[in-house]
Write a structure and sequence with these properties.
It is a single chain. By secondary structure, the chain is mainly beta. It has a domain of 39 residues. The chain has a three-stranded antiparallel β-sheet with strand order 2-1-3, with no helix packed on it. A hairpin with a 7-residue loop joins strand 1 and strand 2.
Length: 67
């Protein structure tokens, strides 16, 4: 019997497009498929954001409101 065992699923990672804040004092970033507009601004400090990539866990956005 294995009551304390967890079913550990494999975490799928892939290169993901993200937007990072350009402010030196802010560390905010947003996945491309969760951005609020074509050219997003930082939701924290309202600075411009730049597009880049990052190795992240796969998450699907099923919202009908995303771009």
């Amino acid at each position: 019997m294995a009551f304390g065992r967890k079913n550990e699923e494999e975490i799928k990672l892939e290169e993901t497009k993200i937007w990072v804040c350009t402010s030196e004092t802010c560390k905010c970033w947003v996945r491309d498929n969760f951005k609020s507009s074509e050219d997003p601004v930082c939701p924290i400090c309202k600075s411009e954001m730049a597009q880049t990539t990052k190795e992240l866990q796969v998450i699907h956005n099923h919202s009908k409101n995303f771009m």
